[in-house]
Amino acid sequence: MPHALLWQAPMTQSKSIPELTERIYGSCAMANIQIRKYRDEDAEIVKELFTLGMSEHLQVLPGIRQMVIYMFNKYIETSLSKDLNNISETYLQQKDSCYWVAESDGRVVGTVACLPAESAPEFMELKRMSVRRSHRGMGIAKALCRIVADFTRERGFPAVILHTTVVQTDAQKLYEHMGYTKTREFVVPELAAKILNFKMFEYRLDLQQNKERD
């Protein structure tokens, strides 16, 4: 019998959601996969997963490689010094925010977070999605997407938005499969990005219209 991804509801959030506790999200190809709320002892491995995940996208055309590396490295550095420097304060101690990790046999292999979008606070924003390369293709990313959607729906937000870059094609395919639609594209407001016409995409999942996908 295949093992299932389980979600444990956050216990410190202001609004309880017992109906989501230990909800089965689907079969997983690897045993002992569980999704739980972030703990402070996860800090270093979460930062490592984020850095490795972002670094994978640097395999681009040689002629523009150095400029893209510069942009991604700057983004990684900024992220590590901001929300990822204090995940508990940013995501667990704030209203309508949370950060989850996926574990395999006690090892953190995936992450996702959400909080009210800074640019559109009436929507929730999905952030920090990352799954270790060795554990992809097992349904972990889909389960993490569903957790964010359920969390958002329970808190009365009408939609989830997210941002990804033109080079993150696997992420784009995942989000589209999960029911997100591309709503906007824009050039990153950095000089190097403007020179390269390096674009960001905004996606949105409208929860009233969305039907959960396998």
Q: Mind explaining what this structure looks like?
A:
With 214 residues, the chain is α+β, with helices and mostly antiparallel strands. Helix content is 31%, strand content 29%. It contains 6 helices and 9 strands. The protein has helices at 43-55, 65-81, 87-92, 140-154, 169-177, 191-196, and strands at residues 3-7, 23-28, 33-37, 98-104, 107-116, 124-131, 159-165, 181-187, 199-206. A 9-stranded mixed β-sheet has the order 2-1-3-4-5-6-7-9-8, with helices on both faces. Helix 1 runs antiparallel to helix 2. The radius of gyration is 17 Å and the shape is globular. The model is unreliable at 1-30 (pLDDT under 50). This is N-acetyltransferase domain-containing protein. InterPro entries: Acyl_CoA_acyltransferase (IPR016181), GNAT_dom (IPR000182), NAT_camello-type (IPR050769). Keywords: Transferase.
Give the radius of gyration: 17 Å
Number of strands: 9
| Biggest sheet: strand arrangement | 2-1-3-4-5-6-7-9-8
Q: Main β-sheet, in a few words?
A: 9 strands, mixed
Pick out the low-confidence regions.
1-30
Helix content: 25-40%
Average pLDDT metric: 83
Shape: globular
DSSP summary: helix tally = 6
Pfam families: Acetyltransf_1 (PF00583)
Organism: Goodea atripinnis
Domain N-acetyltransferase: 33-208
Keywords: Transferase
Please render the helix and strand layout as text.
Blueprint: E1 3-7, E2 23-28, E3 33-37, H1 43-55, H2 65-81, H3 87-92, E4 98-104, E5 107-116, E6 124-131, H4 140-154, E7 159-165, H5 169-177, E8 181-187, H6 191-196, E9 199-206
Parallel strand pairs: 1-3, 6-7
Antiparallel strand pairs: 1-2, 3-4, 4-5, 5-6, 7-9, 8-9
Helix pairs in contact: 1-2
